[in-house]
Amino acid sequence: MPKMKSNKGAHKSFRKTASGSFKRKKAYKSHILTSKSTKRKRKLRRATLVSDANQKKVSLMVHN
Questions:
Q1: Going by C-beta distance under 8 Å and a sequence separation of 6 or more, which residues neighbour residue 44?
Q2: What pLDDT does residue 3 have?
Q3: Which residues are CB-neighbours of 46 under 8 A, at least 6 positions away?
Q4: Cβ pair 49, 24 in contact under 8 A
Q5: Is 10 left (phi over 0), alpha (psi -120 to 50) or beta?
Q6: pLDDT tens figures, 24-55
Q7: How far apart are CA 11 and CA 63, in angstroms?
Q8: What is residue 16's predicted lDDT score, i.e. its pLDDT?
Q9: CA distance 30 to 32
Q10: CA torsion 44→9→21→48, rounded to 10°?
Q11: What is the pLDDT of residue 64?
């Protein structure tokens, strides 16, 4: 049986923290930025954690 391959897209999108959870970037920051407020765009810059519901799925894709 061959080894399982990690999902390379997920591997580049998520970073594991020291506590074992995953960091991710926020969506809606790529284009059509003129209609979004400065406050909204500033808040989208910050990274956030993956939700508890998706934690297991992400760890399987990343294989950490």
A1: 26, 27, 28, 29
A2: 87
A3: 26
A4: yes
A5: alpha
A6: 999 999 999 999 999 999 999 999 999 999 99
A7: 8
A8: 95
A9: 7
A10: 0
A11: 57
- Amino acid type, 27: A
- Write down the pLDDT at residue 23: 97
- CA 33/CA 7 separation, integer angstroms: 30
How far apart (Å, rounded) are the C-alpha atoms in residues 59 and 33? Answer: 32
Q: C-alpha dihedral over 17, 14, 25, 32, to 10 degrees?
A: 170
Residue 4 pLDDT greater than 90, yes or no: no
Torsion, CA 37, CA 43, CA 44, CA 49, rounded to 10: -160
Which residue intervals of 1-64 are DSSP H helices?
8-13, 38-45, 55-62
CA 2 – CA 14 distance, rounded (Å)? 25
